[in-house]
Amino acid sequence: MVRRELKYRRWLVTLLMGCCTALAAMAQSQGWAPDARIPSESGADGLVLPQDGAATHLGVSSCASSVCHGRAEPSAVNRVWLTEFRIWQGQDAHATSYATLLTDQSRTIATKMGIGDPASAAVCLNCHADNVPVERRGKRFQLSDGVGCEACHGGAEGWISSHTDPKASYAENLEAGLFPSASPENRAELCLSCHLGTSQKFASHDIMAGGHPQLLFETATFSINQPMHYAVDADYRARKGEYGNMDLWLHGLLEAAATQLQLITDKRLNVTGSFPDVALYHCDSCHRLTDVSAGDPWPVDPLRPSGSIPLNDAALSLIALMATTLEVDGAQAFSGGLDRLIFAASMQRGELSQMSEALKPKFRVVQRELLQQAFSGNQLSALRRALLTFAASGKARYFSNAFQVFLAINTLNHALQDDMLLQEEMQTWFQSIMSESEFAPVLFATQAARLLLP
Ligand code: HEC
Ligand code: HEC
Ligand code: HEC
Ligand code: HEC
Known about the structure:
- There is one protein chain.
- This protein is mainly α.
- Helix 17 runs antiparallel to helix 20.
- The protein has 2 domains: about 45-245, no CATH class; about 260-450, no CATH class.
- The protein has 20 helices and no strands.
- Helices cover about 45% and strands about 0% of the residues.
- One heme C binds near residues 118 and 194.
- The site of one heme C has 15 residues, from helix 9 and helix 13.
């Protein structure tokens, strides 16, 4: 019997308590028009992630001096705070991500995998540090800096000297190689490359079985939970454009769904040729207690006969729900295709590749539609009801589904500006997903039903 014991997640604890001021600053009106840029398929849009760029990475100490980003107090005259290094070093989990590889927990994972020292293993360093090839490391670069400035902002070789010029526009800095992390679409791809994985770096079940936490991510919430080292104020918007929380949320989900479709059929994650890595399935379908029934009242899902293993469809199923609720073109085709994919993932794995390929164009139609429309407050309310109905009927019975539904509702509450009204109910709901090992699907559904009441 396998039972996972996980510590309480920092993000969930801070989620409802710490984020409201930051969110208020980003709050949008009752309706919403997405950032209109239309992304192409994940990884196919020519976007080069910091780790893959040609520029040399100079190292965090190149940014950290007290006259640069290492000031003790925010600058009153500059556009940016210049305290970014202090915030990162003092509060940001990315600064200790390399140190994590020196812990007992990491050593246990590495021992089970037989990979020796985790702090020298590429499979760990690719996500826990700025692991660019040696020839792209500057003199002051240190792997032990973990996920440093340039892991997100791009190798600074080309822009280090020019970006300090107050006359340099954002466009010019991007031209010089700064990574365009202000765009929700690009940010989602950046964050998810480590927080969900790509075919080049993936937290496989081998890693999980050593005791690695399940990867869970939502771009809007995690953007808030990363200790803020920048302010999205009027000056920022003038320089970098308008985007809000809903944009980060939608682009994040779309990117996660696209990546998921990609990973399912990636040959590197399908060593047996017949079964993709089980880390792509719902962890808590296989990992649950067998001596007590969870007491689920729900009928067996026709797409997932009892005993079949359900694909982790957290992002994909929310996109389908969103598309059908908002009645965008192509919604039915996508939704039907997703059902076939989920069935194949459990029951006809030989056809999985084909199903996934068939779903990609349908996904792109829905993606384009979702990004092109402006949504009224009424539509957002309808979407919230649909999500709550989904949860209330037991369709979010696996943790990663419940996690995404909860954060989606939280984001919608803010967009609809009735979050204060719902605080108490949301807190109660939050209790049911605070810990993965104590996740109670029935409680989660019951509380969703309560929130559905007018
Ligand atoms: C190069 C890989 C990488 C990239 C890119 C990355 N992260 Fe992370 N992130 C990590 C790792 C590794 C950790 C875990 C650090 C640890 O505790 O060892 C982490 C931790 C976090 C945490 C803390 C989670 C917790 O449980 O407390 C937040 C929040 C976060 N990341 C947000 C983001 C956001 C937002 C982005 C995109 C702007 C992003 N990350 C991009 C690798 C990355
Ligand atoms: C695909 C990227 C990825 C890979 C590969 C990866 N990790 Fe992680 N790891 C993360 C992220 C992201 C987190 C933070 C999870 C969160 O809190 O949301 C994390 C968290 C952890 C934690 C828990 C840290 C804490 O503060 O609780 C440990 C330990 C860890 N990783 C060790 C390893 C080891 C050892 C390897 C190599 C065998 C490895 N990781 C490979 C992305 C990755
Ligand atoms: C995990 C990813 C991540 C890491 C690590 C990171 N940043 Fe950022 N940073 C962001 C994101 C996301 C934004 C907001 C989007 C944007 O403006 O590009 C941002 C914004 C900024 C800004 C822009 C503020 C503005 O008003 O335009 C500065 C300056 C900055 N970061 C400096 C740093 C420095 C210095 C470090 C290292 C000490 C660092 N960042 C580490 C993700 C990161
Ligand atoms: C298809 C079923 C299946 C899925 C899905 C699955 N696992 Fe496992 N897992 C197993 C089996 C079987 C074992 C024990 C055999 C082994 O060591 O591989 C195991 C072992 C483990 C262990 C080691 C337990 C111990 O007592 O040492 C952990 C931790 C774990 N899995 C975490 C996860 C996480 C996290 C996920 C989701 C990302 C996941 N598993 C998805 C079947 C699964």
